[in-house]
Specification:
463 residues; 8-stranded mixed sheet; 6-stranded antiparallel sheet; 15 helices; globular; binds adenosine-5'-diphosphate; binds aspartic acid; binds magnesium ion
């Protein structure tokens, strides 16, 4: 295996000139034989600002111009600090000027016609990485390091599912190997963005730069993929909710995948898919504490005397409750329920069925739940009028909480402890599901109880 490493730096790691200097030091301090491949996100807050600017422009609100000026200020401000030398400064400014001209043109077009397609949305939200990448690459190259900035749209190939495009692994792998083949060059690659076979810009979904890094890692058989961020690694819970959350030093691919699917945004949910098969370890590290070990995500992880590994949660979900007589005993109906939801394009996150077979609860994101409920009432109108289905109800403002861990398998008494800690905190549970792998238990509560519930579980199982 080559000793080469992929190093991905998130938005907070490249938030300003000072941080970019730290990133450059970390990259240059790599002692591997081959140069690392660096993946960068947009500067912190820029992707959100681009999306907000698009919304303003689309609704005919001139405020998009103010946001655009702010985005310019962030980038030119960093450039002024990073490149005091006149020549380097004017060179990087000319590349930025061109990008801003293009961005301004697209936003103005949206403002004039008052409409923005999903395709154009992707083009705009990807500007953040196209702006940060040349700045970071130019800074790393200042003391004569050999550096090349790479626009990932030339190497990450996807379909045209705008907003969250699906990757064509085979083509991507071929393009990556062909483009990033020089071992003595530090390639600095834009995260998040990709393109279709026709060259149309797409994105890998919010937070997608982690995924870019793992796609490069798998394509190049890297020794490891490092995700550099603003926390010490994967913690036992979101530190914004649980100040006592502590660092998980080792976590298995499966556990980390469950954590991210259930909302731990420290890694994008798809990140581990490309690297699992090749068993390429992923490290989560803190840019402000480069020498700290971080979290190692690999095939196996050992957690001694720890009932669970972590807690994660998904905000703003809704529950569809379908109630009927002996509805669930009739396989035809269940099939129709699931095809109707699937045809509506909605994605079910969690299913919980009462053993009485009289009702079924489905948990979906808010928009998906309402889309699915509409489709269900239309497609199953015959079953509803003949009372096989008595009601299709949607409850909003809910939260899914999941506890995750390899050690949970076959552990007696864990559920008792979990639910009594919630009972003591006076929290009502609306639905429960256990993953078939016994690697997680997830349950649904009212959104307002989220922090209280996570704090109570953390105290009972992890402190
Ligand atoms: P980046 O900009 O580097 O991509 P993100 O904001 O996407 O960073 O992810 C890091 C953030 O994820 C942390 O600041 C933290 O608030 C949040 N987070 C949520 N759950 C966890 C967890 N279990 N462990 C660590 N961080 C978590
Ligand atoms: N800049 C993109 C986002 O904010 C991708 C990323 O940072 O990973 O979602
Ligand atoms: Mg991220």
């Amino acid at each position: 295996m080559s000793p080469m490493q992929i190093m991905k730096f998130g938005g907070s790691s490249v938030a300003n000139a000072e941080r970019i200097k730290i990133v450059s030091d970390i990259v240059k301090s790599q002692k591997t034989k081959d140069q690392p491949i660096v993946v960068v996100s947009a500067m912190k807050g820029v992707t959100n600002a681009l999306i907000q600017a698009t919304l303003f422009a689309e609704s005919g609100d001139q405020s998009y111009i103010t946001i655009l000026e702010d985005i310019k200020g962030t980038h030119y401000g960093a450039v002024d600090v990073l490149f005091p030398q006149e020549e380097a400064h004017s060179e990087i400014c000319s590349s930025l000027n061109l990008l801003f001209e293009e961005l301004e043109g697209v936003l103005r077009g949206i403002f004039l016609i008052g409409e923005c397609s999903l395709r154009t949305n992707d083009l705009i939200s990807g500007f953040g990485e196209r702006l940060s990448c040349p700045i970071i690459a130019a800074y790393i190259s200042l003391d004569n390091a050999r550096v090349e900035a790479v626009d990932a749209r030339t190497i990450i190939r996807t379909d045209n599912n705008f907003g969250k495009a699906e990757v064509d692994f085979e083509t991507t792998s071929r393009l990556v190997r062909k483009r990033l083949k020089k071992k003595d060059i530090i390639y600095v690659v834009t995260g998040f963005i990709s393109s279709t076979a026709d060259g149309i810009s797409t994105t890998l979904g919010r937070n997608g730069s982690d995924y870019t890094a793992s796609l490069l890692g798998a394509s190049l058989n890297a020794a490891s993929v490092e995700i550099w961020t603003d926390v010490d690694g994967v913690l036992t819970a979101d530190p914004r909710i649980v100040p006592e959350a502590w660092l998980i030093k080792e976590i298995s691919f499966q556990e980390a995948m469950e954590m991210s699917f259930f909302g731990a945004e420290v890694i994008h949910p798809y990140t581990l898919l490309p690297v699992i098969e090749k068993e390429i370890p992923v490290y989560i590290k803190n840019t402000l504490k480069p020498s700290a070990p971080g979290t190692r995500i690999a095939k196996k992880a050992y957690h001694k005397n720890q009932p669970i590994t972590g807690i994660a949660s998904i905000d703003n979900v809704s529950m569809i409750t379908i109630e009927g007589g002996d509805m669930i005993g009739m396989p035809g109906i269940v099939n129709r329920i699931f095809s109707s939801i699937s045809n509506s394009g909605a994605n079910i996150i969690m299913i919980s069925q009462a053993s009485s077979e009289h009702s079924i609860c489905l948990i979906l994101r808010y928009e998906d739940a309402h889309k699915a409920a509409k489709s269900l009432t239309e497609d199953l109108s015959d079953a509803i009028s003949s009372r096989i289905i008595r009601s299709v109800r949607v409850t909003d403002e809910l939260e899914i909480i999941a506890i995750i861990g390899d050690n949970m398998r076959g552990q007696v008494g864990l559920c008792g402890k979990l639910f009594s800690s919630l009972g003591e905190a006076n929290i009502n549970i609306l639905a429960i599901a256990q993953g078939s792998t016994e690697l997680n238990i997830s349950f649904v509560i009212a959104s307002k109880n989220k922090s209280k519930a996570i704090l109570a579980i953390h105290k009972s199982l992890l402190e």
